């Protein structure tokens, strides 16, 4: 009987694959978050009637624990602009722009496509290229 020898090599077999997958997931989150930051800036420019750039210059993307978050750095009137502040209905007639909600919903629909755009690089890494 003749012996057969099989040699497996490359990232899938040498323990690198989990790290590559983790790198991809991180890059995909960053890509989606950065698109969210761009989208929220565009939405603010579209909906705000008397624009002053201060609020949208405070929109930033940063890592918070194991996640990546787009936020307005806690600008005190941010909830009022969104329409979820305590002063929106009982005090003023302003119902808010709902810009965060609309952008989040649109981004949720596009997140898979955005993550797919960064995938080829990580597939090449998994292939050892």
Explain what the structure shows.
Helix content is 53%, strand content 8%. A hairpin with a 2-residue loop joins β1 and β2. The chain has one domain. The protein has a two-stranded antiparallel ribbon.
Count the helices. How many? 4
Principal-axes geometry comes out as rod-shaped
Query: Radius of gyration in whole Å, from Cα?
Result: 22 Å
Q: Termini, distance in Å?
A: 37 Å
Q: What is the average of the pLDDT values? A: 91
Number of domains: 1
Strand content: 5-15%
Helix content: 40-55%
- The overall strand count is 2
Low-confidence stretches: none
Oligomer: single chain
What structural category characterises the helix and strand content?
mainly alpha
**Strand order across the biggest sheet?**
1-2
Give the SSE string.
HHEEHH
Largest sheet: 2 strands, antiparallel
What is shown here, in short?
The chain has 129 residues and is mostly helical. The chain has helices at 17-47, 54-57, 78-82, 99-126, and strands spanning 60-64, 67-71.
Spell out the blueprint of helices and strands.
Layout: H1 17-47, H2 54-57, E1 60-64, E2 67-71, H3 78-82, H4 99-126
Antiparallel strand pairs: 1-2
Please supply descriptive tags for the structure shown above:
8% strand; mainly alpha; two-stranded antiparallel ribbon; 129 residues
């Amino acid at each position: 009987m003749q012996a057969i020898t099989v040699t497996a090599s490359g990232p899938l077999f040498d323990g690198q694959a989990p790290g590559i997958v983790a790198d991809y997931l991180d890059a995909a989150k960053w890509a989606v978050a950065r698109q969210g930051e761009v989208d929220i800036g565009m939405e603010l420019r579209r909906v705000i009637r008397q624009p002053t750039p201060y609020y949208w210059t405070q929109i930033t993307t940063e890592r918070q624990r194991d996640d990546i978050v787009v936020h307005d750095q806690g600008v005190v009137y941010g909830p009022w602009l969104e329409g979820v502040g305590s002063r929106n209905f009982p005090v003023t007639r302003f119902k808010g722009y709902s810009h965060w909600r609309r952008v989040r919903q649109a981004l949720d629909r596009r997140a898979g496509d955005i993550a797919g755009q960064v995938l080829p690089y990580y597939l090449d890494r998994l292939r050892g290229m």
